[in-house]
Every structure is written in structure tokens, then in C-alpha cells.
Design brief:
Largest sheet: 7 strands, antiparallel
Radius of gyration: 19 Å
Keywords: Signal
Distance between the termini: 63 Å
Strand content: 35-45%
Shape: globular
Number of strands: 9
Structural class: mainly beta
């Protein structure tokens, strides 16, 4: 049985379009010391490095919609330790860089579960994925609750 080549091309295009649409995007805000302005970057979670084009020393990166500490790689000018915290708004996840350092580029790869999405399957108990911003409780990704809302 021969399959028309037009059908094969159309099917391949459809599958490629679906795969491209599934790539998540991290919206990151880079916060330097008080002498410089914060700037934002949109980073596709496909492993492609996005260059900052900035030499400002960054101490905090806001990551409100993506698990950036675990799923992103930051190319820094100087070595820095990182850890996570929650911003003063009680909701936004942040990455702390100690000491502050310039960041050349950032690349992200993977996916995470949005707030109120299932981090574990309700039926099977199977792990689905890390929460983008918050914690997994009762099979769902919940927002941080620091009592400041």
C-alpha cells in the first residue's frame, strides 16, 4: 500500500507543530544591586541559550512561572552559590546568587507543572513533574503560602 507523499508531509508538519507548541517558556526578571535597573528575559525551555547582554551583577532572579533553579543553567562570569527563596509578595519564587555576579546567558530545558495542575496523577499516584512555582500538596501544585497575601 502506497501512502501519498502529501499525506506524509502533512502528518509530519502536524506533529512538528504540536511538539513546538509544547515547549514551555520561563519569564525571568534579573535583579541587580540598587545601582542598576532590573531587566526581563523570556527563555524557551528548549535548551537554547539566551544572552543577557548585561554586565550588571545579579543577586536575585524572579521565576514566577518556571522551576528555574532546577531546570535552567545560568552561565555566570564568577562562581556563585545559588539557593531558592520566596519574594516579599509571598508568591514569586526567586533564585539567590551569592555573591552577586554578572550572568552571561541562561538556558532552560524541561517542563514543570503550573499552579493547581496535577504533580501526581489522581488515579495512579504516578509522579507527573515538578511544580513551576510553589509546592506539591495533595497531588496538586499549590502556590507558596507565606501568610502575606
Amino acid at each position: 500500500m502506497k501512502i501519498p507523499s502529501l499525506f506524509v508531509v502533512a502528518a509530519a508538519t502536524a506533529f512538528t507543530t504540536v511538539a513546538a507548541a509544547e515547549v514551555q517558556t520561563a519569564h525571568l526578571t534579573f535583579r541587580p544591586d540598587a545601582t542598576s535597573s532590573a531587566y526581563e528575559l523570556t527563555v524557551p525551555a528548549d535548551g537554547t541559550p539566551v544572552f543577557t547582554n548585561s554586565d550588571a551583577k545579579i543577586s536575585l532572579v524572579d521565576a514566577p512561572d518556571y522551576y528555574a533553579e532546577g531546570d535552567c543553567t545560568f552561565d555566570t562570569v564568577e562562581s556563585a552559590q545559588t539557593h531558592s527563596t520566596v519574594a516579599a509578595d509571598g508568591v514569586t519564587g526567586q533564585i539567590v546568587f551569592e555573591p552577586a555576579t554578572a550572568i552571561r546567558s541562561v538556558s532552560c530545558k524541561g517542563s514543570c507543572v503550573p499552579t493547581y495542575g496535577n504533580c501526581f496523577d489522581d488515579r495512579t499516584g504516578q509522579y507527573i513533574g515538578s511544580c513551576c512555582n510553589g509546592l506539591c500538596a495533595a497531588n496538586r501544585c499549590r502556590p507558596w503560602n507565606t501568610g502575606k497575601q
